[in-house]
Design a protein that fits this description.
single chain; alpha/beta; six-stranded antiparallel beta sheet; five-stranded parallel beta sheet; 12 helices; about 35% strand
Length: about 500
């Protein structure tokens, strides 16, 4: 039927239907564009997101799309939005025929070949970005794990809980990499790197040359060192194989112990409760997540888990692990059919260290994500980069950040010289309650709550020297997106106004 042009506000959107599907009209710069109304990541409703600078941002996990081309310009979405022609008839606009998806750009890079060490978030995003940017040279992605790159956040959330099938887990099927001419070497650890000779040596004794190298080796779980800590009850969660093993152990089990009140530990606790197991959480902290999110959100998360039957043993560590129990430091035994450990990770920097790259609790990179060795880049959990928002070197262990860095590194390998300036974002899911977090605050002077944490509708601002460095949110998706955009611009006045609007 069409709509009157004023019904679509400038830098706004309008949800409707055309050709039997939901379509979102977006207006920017006087033009109107028609794109699919659901995010290509998890199907988030884009009508509930925001439009800024001609881009549509998803309210769920902050994926970002170009309204004109439909291109997924920011992860976690990797696929573009479908789009349609927009026809003007007098004062009304109509959705016309489907348009072709965006085509790869043209690249004239002189890089002979690209080798990516690591098949996780950063490595996969880099490989895809190279092809999307039009690079036609050889691309090889090498992973120590045997599975194709997976949606790692799902491993501790829906898949582990049994509410999503394994079809959800792979980012792409093997046929995608074949069609894109991305060579996958899986289950093949890299043994050594020679930056001067531009070669890598694989664990099977073979070697490969490269024109440019991306290190995206991620992080390894910190292991228990108590007696029995290497026994059959104990699991860690980093890979699809790990998640499968926990699921297999949970079948027929009645009680589990989770060691560590980290995000990964608490998400595992929620998943195992969803499967009907009794769950106890052991951690030395006074409250969960306090170091990252503060006392108020920590108390809320604890209460939320306790509402679902989780029992906490805080202020405690494990002394040992028995045949069917976990022994606390005070000698108390906790029955356990399985034990999942989430006490942190360490960046996997052994290859970088052997190669003589500069390290500082991670691999040091410049603003273009290049290491101290020319032509060698690093992205994801191992990269420590100069944060333009704080002026300090930072390393962030978040899925979306790793994907963003993989894309930026790929463009810089091709000569873009694009500084990495993204504002970190992550989300954590606890039963039906999502917590979003934008920005980065390793510490803060003051924590300020706008709205109500108990009522599950709030923003939590983390201030350093009076400035807002990060914002957490519960069920305030649009405000979380706006906070992210304001942090990108360094707009403290806008952030103060946003907090005031939630208080009102």
């Amino acid at each position: 039927q069409g709509v009157e042009l004023p019904e679509v506000p400038e830098d706004g959107k309008l949800l409707g239907h055309a050709h039997g599907v939901a379509v979102l009209l977006v207006r920017h710069g006087g033009e109107v564009f028609a794109v699919a109304a659901s995010c290509t990541h998890y199907g988030g409703p884009l009508a509930d997101g925001i439009v800024t600078a001609g881009e549509v941002r998803c309210p769920w996990h902050h994926a970002c799309f170009n309204a004109r081309t439909g291109e997924a310009v920011r992860p976690p979405a990797l696929n573009p939005l479908a789009r349609w022609a927009v026809e003007h008839r007098g004062s009304r606009i109509f959705v016309g025929q489907p348009l072709s998806p965006p085509q790869p750009r043209s690249s004239r890079s002189a890089v002979e070949s690209v080798v990516i060490v690591g098949a996780g978030a950063a490595g996969n995003a880099a490989a895809e970005a190279l092809r999307r940017e039009g690079y036609s040279g050889p691309v090889t992605m090498i992973g120590a794990e045997r599975d194709v790159p997976v949606d790692r956040p799902n491993l501790s959330k829906d898949y582990l809980a049994g509410t999503a099938s394994e079809d959800w887990v792979p980012l792409r099927g093997a046929e995608f990499y074949s069609a894109q001419q991305i060579e996958l070497l899986l289950g093949t650890p890299v043994a050594a790197i020679d930056p001067r000779g531009k070669r890598i040596r694989l664990s099977d004794g073979t070697s490969r040359s490269y024109g440019a190298l991306l290190l995206a080796t991620g992080a390894d779980p910190v292991k228990l060192t108590v007696p029995g800590g290497d026994g059959p009850l104990v699991h860690y969660l980093r890979s699809l194989a790990d998640s499968r093993a926990i699921i297999a152990s949970a079948k027929g089990a009645s009680c589990a112990v989770v060691v560590g009140a980290s995000f990964i530990g608490l998400e595992v606790a929620a998943a195992l409760r969803t499967r009907g197991l009794e769950v106890r959480v052991v951690a030395p902290d006074a409250r969960p997540l306090e170091r990252v999110m503060g006392a108020e959100l920590g108390d809320f998360v604890r209460a939320l888990h306790e509402e679902h039957g989780v029992v906490f043993h805080l202020g405690h560590t494990l002394k040992s692990i028995g045949e069917r129990s976990a022994i606390l430091d005070d000698g108390a035994p906790l029955p356990a059919d399985l034990i999942v450990v989430g006490i942190g990770v360490r960046p996997a920097v052994a290859l970088a260290e052997q190669a003589g790259l500069r390290l500082d609790r991670g691999v040091l990179v410049d603003e273009y994500l290049e290491t101290s060795a020319p032509g060698v880049y690093a992205a994801g959990d191992i990269a420590r980069w100069p944060d333009p928002h704080t002026g300090k070197p930072v390393r962030v262990e978040h899925w979306v950040v790793a994907e963003q860095q993989g894309q930026t590194a790929a463009r810089n390998i091709l000569g873009a010289r694009e500084p990495f300036r993204a504002v970190p974002f992550f989300w954590s899911q606890h039963y039906d309650v999502p917590i979003n977090y934008v920005g980065h605050a390793e510490g803060w002077d003051r924590l300020e709550v706008a709205g109500s944490i108990p009522q599950r509708s709030c923003l939590v601002a983390y201030r350093v020297a009076g400035r807002i460095s990060a914002v957490a949110s519960i069920y305030r998706d649009q405000e979380s997106l706006r906070a992210e955009a304001l942090l990108e611009r360094g707009d403290q006045v806008g952030l103060e106004s946003l907090l005031a609007s939630v208080r009102a």
